[in-house]
Amino acid sequence: MAETPIDDPGDDRRNVAMLWELAGLKDLAPAAEKGFSMLTAALQKKISIHKKAEKKRNASAKTQRHLEKQIATRKSAAKRIKAKKKRG
User: Fold this and answer.
1) Whether 30 contacts 20, CB under 8 Å
2) Which end of the chain is less congested by CB atoms within 10 angstroms, N or C?
3) What are phi and psi of 50, to 5 degrees?
4) For residue range 36-79, what is the model confidence (pLDDT) as tens digits?
5) Per-residue pLDDT tens for 8-43?
């Protein structure tokens, strides 16, 4: 059994073709068609949903970091104002 990454459409087919080539059976290998994937429609949908959720999480984390930075900036400004008032 061989585990290979599938990042782009057609990767699975190209990976299988490479295995056939490494086994010395290049003439019998299935064509590694660009854009063709052996992934089922259901699996493609599941991967798509996963990627969308990951993108949403990343955007949410970016928003959270931005808000934390704004809060820190405001706290820093409030401290400066307070110190300035204290000095007179």
Assistant:
1) yes
2) N
3) -60, -45
4) 555 667 777 887 888 899 899 999 999 999 999 999 999 999 99
5) 877 877 788 788 888 887 776 656 555 555 566 777
Instruction: Classify residue 40 by its DSSP letter.
Output: -
30-61 b/e (C-beta count within 10 Å ≥ 16 → b): eebeeeebebeeeeeeeeeeeeeeeeeeeeee
Q: What is the pTM of this model?
A: 0.40
For the chain, strand residue ranges (E) read: none
Q: Which amino acid is at 14?
A: R
CA-based end-to-end distance of the chain: 76
